[in-house]
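Please produce the structure of this protein holding FE2/S2 (inorganic) cluster.
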Amino acid sequence: MTAARPLLPPYPTGWYVISLSRDLAAGTVKPMRFMGQDVILYRTQAGQSNVMGAYCPHLGAHMGYGGTVRGENIRCPFHSFEYNLAGACVSIPYDSRIPPKATAQVFPTQEKNGFVLAYYDSSGSTPTWDVPELDRRDWTDLIATHWIMRGHPQETTENSVDIGHFTETHGYNSVEQLKPLTVDGPYLTTQYAMRRPTLGRNIRSEFEIHVHGLGYSQVDVEVTEMGVKARLFVLATPIGDEQICLRLALSAYQKIDIKQIHPVLSLLPRRALITAIARPTFAGFKHDVEQDIPIWTHKRYVQPPILAGGDGPVGRYRTWVKQFYTEFDQQRV
Ligand code: FES
Ligand SMILES: [Fe+2]
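Below is the modeled complex.
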C-alpha cells in the first residue's frame, strides 16, 4: 500500500538561511531546530555567527538554555566547558587536560546579503559551492516575513519552473519565457515575463530566477512601466521531517526613475517614496506565497508526474534536484 502522502527525503544538501543577520545581536545564543536537529545559533563578541549542535559533548546539557558567549567561545551552562567556533573544547574550569573527544558538532556558517546561512550535508562534507555576495549599496534593507509550515524545499522551489500555476494559482496572464532554463551544477536560472491586473491596468513584470540549491532562491523583479526593481528572496529551511521555515524577503532598488512613478507619489521624499513602493510590492509577493501555502501544506509528492504541454520544465528540474540527495535517496526523488 502506498502512503497517503509519500515523503521526499527531508534533508537535501545545501545552504539554508537560519536567521536574518539583524535578528542576531553579538553575545546572543538561541535554541533552534535545523534539519531535524537541536542546534544553537549564536554570535560571538567579535560578531562571528555560528551554528552548533545544541547538546554539550560532556554530559549533554542543551547550550541554548543558559549557554553564554564568552569572547569568541560558547560556554555550557552546566559545568562551564567552553567551545571555540570550530567546536573544539578549549577550556574546562577544573581540569587543564582537555579530552580530545570533547568536540561539539558545527555546521559551516556564513553571512551573506543580510542572512545567516548554514550548510547541511548528511555525510558531513564541507561545502563545494556558495551563494553569491550581492552589492547592496543602492538597495533598501530587507523587508521580511516567514511561515512555519508542512512542506519541503524541493516542492517550494519547484514553483519557479511550474509555469502552469502562474496563471491558474496566481492569476497572471500572458506568461512568456524570456530565457530558457539553464543549469550549472547547483545553480539554476530562467526568466519569465507575465502580466497581472493591478489597479485597473494589466501590468507587466519580468522575473529572473536564480536558484542556488533548494534552500536559496533569488528572483530579480522588474516592473518596467512603474520603474520598480526588486530582489525577492524565497528561502526554505527544513526544521523537521515534514516541516520547513519558509522565509520571504525583499529589497528594492533605491535609484528609481522618479518620472516613471505616479505623479502623486513623486511628490514624496525619496526615502518615503521607496518605502511606498517596496511595501505594497512585498505585500503582493506575500499574497502569492499565501496562495501557494494551502497547496504545499496538503499536497503529496508525485513522481513521475503526469505532465502536460505548458507545464514548464518540471522534468528537467526533477533531474537537476537529484544532486542534492545521497545516491540512495536519489531513487525517491
Ligand atoms: S554538560 Fe556541558 S559542561 Fe558539562
Ligand atoms: Fe507560486
